[in-house]
């Protein structure tokens, strides 16, 4: 609570929460209007591509920018772009009322602007945390910095769905723009001290890649992060089909909520015991729990059991993501932290579209249970490989 009420860290934390909720709410509203205008699921997927593709293409570049010291400017530019994309959507649907054939193009362009803004400010959002707290507070601050993503995954779609159903998509876009503007104001109000550039040296992307290759613990935690991104994807990709198998779409809401509640509960447990728990151990344990949760969903036939399995998966998601993030930020040299956290974003976000496509194809061909089983097998194999690599490094 002391950190959350601290002026500088609190402004960044609550602002990040507002921005994350805005992104997820806008994504749902954008998908809704595209499907209503076109009736095409393929065109709806373009909304996701527009927001994720910039992460894969520009993430490492944004990390290199962050390592040059202009973190606050980068944060402001990223939020300004996000607010501009949401505002453009709001004005388009309020003033112009575009024809149906133009809606997918307009939504794609505006979502792309938001995606670029998200990736521009992403690495800066991670590496600014050590400048706001003391060394003793750093592990808990890093853990708290992952919480807005967990809450946003639950609150954002809920807000977007309610707003679209009650007031229409234009109001949802206006709300998203207002939340992004609120984040922008909080960044200014935080009065974050100017961060000097890291030690002189090679600040190129190639040097960042070489650093990751030379530090096995960093590489392992990036792999864990990619596994976490893939392991959380069924909450979006497979949950609707699983809900249909379990009795109808009325089950979909409880399934999604169970994942979020499990993640929140696990985070609270972690916060209470973080003085005694190693972040490295937390990351490994979380990945094991994530494997168990997805494996349980491979042969589930009861809605209550399914909700419990999703809660277990959510708990594993929270622990693995938090532990990996703490290890990466505390063990990475300051001069490379921006580039390493940019690769964190690429690993976490880049694994999602690949997992989504793979799980969707397997689910269509062999059923939802087989898709969950395949995901569990992939996560288990990754866990074994990572364990062997860590053991080999420890022996050296």
What this model shows, in words?
With 396 residues, the protein is an all-alpha fold. It has 2 domains: 1-197, Growth Hormone, Chain: A (Up-down Bundle); 204-396, Up-down Bundle (Growth Hormone, Chain: A), CATH 1.20.1250.20. 83% of the residues lie in helices and 0% in strands. The protein contains 16 helices and no strands. It has helices at 2-5, 7-38, 41-66, 71-96, 103-127, 138-166, 169-190, 205-214, 216-232, 234-237, 239-245, 252-273, 279-296, 303-331, 337-366, 368-395. The model has no long low-confidence stretch (mean pLDDT 80).
Mean pLDDT value: 80
Low-confidence stretches: none
- At CATH level 2, the architecture of the largest domain is Up-down Bundle
Q: Whole-Å distance between the termini?
A: 41 Å
CATH topology of the largest domain: Growth Hormone, Chain: A
Helix content: over 70%
Q: Describe the global form.
A: globular
Top CATH class of the largest domain: Mainly Alpha
Number of separate domains: 2
| E-strand count | 0
How would you summarize the topology of this molecule?
Elements: H1 2-5, H2 7-38, H3 41-66, H4 71-96, H5 103-127, H6 138-166, H7 169-190, H8 205-214, H9 216-232, H10 234-237, H11 239-245, H12 252-273, H13 279-296, H14 303-331, H15 337-366, H16 368-395
Helix pairs in contact: 2-3, 2-5, 2-6, 2-7, 3-5, 3-15, 4-5, 4-7, 5-15, 6-7, 6-12, 6-14, 9-13, 9-14, 9-15, 9-16, 12-14, 13-14, 13-16, 15-16
């Amino acid at each position: 609570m002391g950190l959350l009420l601290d002026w500088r860290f609190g402004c960044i934390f609550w602002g990040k929460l507002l921005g994350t909720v805005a992104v997820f709410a806008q994504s749902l509203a954008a998908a809704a209007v595209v499907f209503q205008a076109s009736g095409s699921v393929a065109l709806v997927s373009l909304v996701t591509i527009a927001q994720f593709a910039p992460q894969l293409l520009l993430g490492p570049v944004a990390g290199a920018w962050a390592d040059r010291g202009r973190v606050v400017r980068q944060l402001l530019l990223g939020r300004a772009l996000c607010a501009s994309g949401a505002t453009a959507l709001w004005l388009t649907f309020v003033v112009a009322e575009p024809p149906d054939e133009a809606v997918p193009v307009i939504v794609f362009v505006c979502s792309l602007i938001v995606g670029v803004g998200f990736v521009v400010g992403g690495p800066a959002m991670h590496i600014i945390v050590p400048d706001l707290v003391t060394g003793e507070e750093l592990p808990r601050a890093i853990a708290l910095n992952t919480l807005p993503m967990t809450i946003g995954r639950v609150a954002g779609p809920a807000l977007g769905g309610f707003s679209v159903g009650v007031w229409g998509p234009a109001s949802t876009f206006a709300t998203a723009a207002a939340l992004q503007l609120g984040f922008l104001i909080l960044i200014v109000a935080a009065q974050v001290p100017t961060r000097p550039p890291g030690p002189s040296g090679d600040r190129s992307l190639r040097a960042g890649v070489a650093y990751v290759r030379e530090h096995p613990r960093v590489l392992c935690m990036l792999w864990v992060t990619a596994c976490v991104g893939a392991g959380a994807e069924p909450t979006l990709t497979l949950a609707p089909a699983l809900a249909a198998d379990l009795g109808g779409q009325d089950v979909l809401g409880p399934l999604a909520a169970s994942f979020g509640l499990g993640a929140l509960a696990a985070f609270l447990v972690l916060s209470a015991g973080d003085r005694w728990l190693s972040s490295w151990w937390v990351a490994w344990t979380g990945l094991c729990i994530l494997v168990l949760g997805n494996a349980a969903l491979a042969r589930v036939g009861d809605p209550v059991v399914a909700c419990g399995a999703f809660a277990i998966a959510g708990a594993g998601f929270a622990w693995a993501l938090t532990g990996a993030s703490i290890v990466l930020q505390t063990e990475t040299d300051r001069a490379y932290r921006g580039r390493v956290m940019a690769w964190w974003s690429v690993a976490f976000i880049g694994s999602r579209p690949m997992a989504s496509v793979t799980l969707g194809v397997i689910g269509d061909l062999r059923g939802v249970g087989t898709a969950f089983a395949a995901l569990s097998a992939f996560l288990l194999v990754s866990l074994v490989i990572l364990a062997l690599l860590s053991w080999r490094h420890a022996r050296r």
